[in-house]
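Subgroup meeting minutes
Present: P.N., E.W., G.H.
Scribe: E.W.

1. P.N. recapped why we're keeping a running log of single-chain structure predictions: easier to compare across weeks, and new members can see raw inputs and outputs side by side.
2. G.H. added today's entry (293 aa).
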Amino acid sequence: MHIRQEHIAKNELLRQKAQGQFKTFIADCRIKNFQKKKVLEIGFKNGLFLDECYKAGLAATGLEISRQYFETVRKEFPYLALLHYNGGDFPLPDNSSDFVVSFQVLEHVSSTEHIIRECLRILTPGGIMYHICPNYHSFYEGHYNIFWLPFLNKKTARLYLKFLKRCVPRFKDLDLVKVRAKDVWHGHGLEQAEFKTDEVRYVPGFESFNLIKPNDVMKIIKKYKDELEFISLGKGEFVAGLNKERIQKVKQKFLRKILELVIILPGIRHFFLWIICWAGFYYPMTIILKKKA
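Output recorded in log:
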C-alpha cells in the first residue's frame, strides 16, 4: 500500500512538472494562438508533456529513441502520434510542424547542429523551436548534481569527475549498449537503439555527453542566419525565473546557498545577475529560434 501511494505521488509530481513545462513553453515563446497547431517533441520520455499539449488543443507528435519509453507511452496514451526514432533525420516531411520542443535532450546528441537543422527543415515558416538543455558554461551539472567548472572541455571534465569520484564506471566499462552511441545518434541506418538494462536511457553516461555551451549554439545560429531568427538562449528566462521556489529545486547545496543569499540582497542581486548574463553562466539554456517566413 505504501509503495502504491509513493507511485501515485511520484506520478502526480511528474504531471505537475509537465503542466509547468507547457505553461513555460507557451509563455517563453509568447504564443497566443496555439489551437490546432502542430507540435513535435523530441525525446518524449513519459509522454506527459505531449499529453498536456493534446489536452490544450494542439496536434501532438513525439519522437523517442528508447524502445521502452515508446512502447510504454503508446499503451498509456494511444491517442498520441508517436514515432520510434533512430537518431538520424526526423521521419517527418518538410514544413510539417508549427513548434518543435525538447527538454534535456541536446546534451545527449552527438551533433547539436544536426538537430537544429532538422528542426528548421520540418518547421513551417514562422514556426518556433524551443529547447531546454544544460549550459556547460555554467557552474552546475544536473546529471551528477555537482558544482561545475564552466571552462572544462571533455578531457578536463572527465578528470574533474574522476577527482570528485563521480564518473560512474558502469556507463563506460560495462557492455550496456548493443549499438555504439555515435551510430545511434548519427543515424547510420539503424532502426532502433536497444539497451540491455532498464536503467540506461538514451545515450548513457558522461562519455557520450554533448557539453553544449552558448557560444556553440551561436555559431550554429550564425551559420543559418538567413533562415533562422534568433529569439533567446535563456538569459532573460533565467533572470525572470530566479525565485525562491526555483532555487529550492537546485540540488547542489553550495550553489543553492549562494542563490538564496543573492535574492535577499537587492544590490547584490542586480550585480550578480548582470555578471552571470554577461559571462554566459546562466542555467539552463533556453534556446528559442524562429524559422523566417
